[in-house]
């Protein structure tokens, strides 16, 4: 679950991001939150290939009003959810023109935000990892990810089909985005899906015949995590 918070008020932006992180944590939903101080930055980020499942956006902003930014995003093909945050309900009707998923009046309470997020995500498959490949956005179910390895300036995602997909992020950032109990950081350079592990020795042997390293310094604790997860 990737969320963007766009608000030109620093305090409102910080508070909204903080409440969203708390909400995701309580739901045990992995993902990341990016903040933007203006709509132009958000639009450029999406045009560069960043995927957001949900956008929280203030309506009254400098340079580009939130409602106009939403129109631009929809016109460019953005199909994710948009929730407006504003001090006035004056644009409530117009928000439906851009297929807004919600409308919260400031100051936003945590309970109202939590209720809206839980309602929006009740039918949303949060176990999808999205990445850009050859100009297109592709989605991989968590179960289809075998392991991810750090390789120089990028990471390589090894899928269940044998396909290897480059991800231009740090492994720790990907781990934070996934934040799911099936993924184990077994080594500085490896994040493995424990559903694909069939044997543990000096390394983890995977169902596809490959193996991933286990950090020797903490090998006992790492293997115990796997045993607890697998129920053995």
Name some characteristics of this structure.
232 residues; alpha/beta; elongated
Would you mind describing this structure in some detail?
With 232 residues, the chain is α/β, with parallel strands linked by helices. 31% of the residues lie in helices and 32% in strands. The chain is built from seven helices and 15 strands.
Number of helices, counting only DSSP H or I runs of 4 residues or more: 7
Spans with pLDDT under 50 lasting ≥5 residues?
Answer: none
Order of helices and strands: EHEHEHEHEHEEEEEHEEEEEH
Gyration radius over CA: 20 Å
Structural category: alpha/beta
Strands ordered across the widest β-sheet:
2-1-3-4-5
Number of strands: 15
Distance between the termini: 31 Å
The dominant shape is elongated
Mean pLDDT: 89
Helix content range = 25-40%
Brief summary of the model shown:
This protein is of the alpha/beta class. The protein is 31% helix and 32% strand.
Topology diagram in text:
Layout: E1 2-6, H1 10-27, E2 32-36, H2 39-47, E3 54-58, H3 66-75, E4 81-86, H4 92-95, E5 102-105, H5 110-121, E6 128-133, E7 136-141, E8 145-151, E9 154-159, E10 164-167, H6 171-178, E11 183-187, E12 190-193, E13 197-200, E14 203-206, E15 211-213, H7 219-230
Parallel strand pairs: 1-2, 1-3, 3-4, 4-5
Antiparallel strand pairs: 6-7, 8-9, 8-12, 9-10, 11-12, 13-14, 14-15
Helix pairs in contact: 1-5
């Amino acid at each position: 679950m990737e969320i963007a918070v766009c608000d030109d008020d620093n305090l409102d932006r910080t508070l909204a991001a903080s409440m969203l992180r708390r909400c995701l944590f309580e739901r045990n939903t992995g993902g990341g939150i990016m903040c933007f101080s203006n709509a132009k930055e958000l639009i450029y980020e999406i045009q560069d290939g960043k995927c957001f499942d949900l956008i929280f956006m203030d309506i009254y902003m400098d340079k580009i009003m939130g409602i106009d930014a939403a129109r631009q995003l929809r016109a460019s093909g953005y199909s994710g959810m948009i929730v407006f945050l504003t001090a006035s309900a004056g644009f409530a009707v117009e928000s439906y023109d851009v297929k807004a998923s919600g409308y919260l009046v400031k100051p936003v309470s945590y309970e109202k935000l939590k209720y809206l997020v839980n309602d929006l995500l009740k039918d949303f498959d949060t176990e999808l990892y999205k990445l850009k490949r050859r100009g297109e956005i592709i989605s991989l179910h968590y179960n289809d990810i075998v392991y991810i390895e750090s390789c120089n300036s990028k990471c390589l995602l090894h899928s269940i089909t044998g396909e290897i997909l480059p991800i231009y992020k740090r492994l720790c950032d990907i781990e934070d985005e996934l934040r799911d109990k099936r993924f184990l950081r077994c080594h500085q350079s490896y994040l493995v899906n424990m559903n694909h592990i069939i044997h543990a020795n000096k390394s983890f042997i995977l169902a596809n015949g490959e193996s991933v390293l286990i950090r020797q310094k903490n090998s006992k604790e790492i293997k115990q995590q796997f045993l607890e997860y697998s129920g053995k």
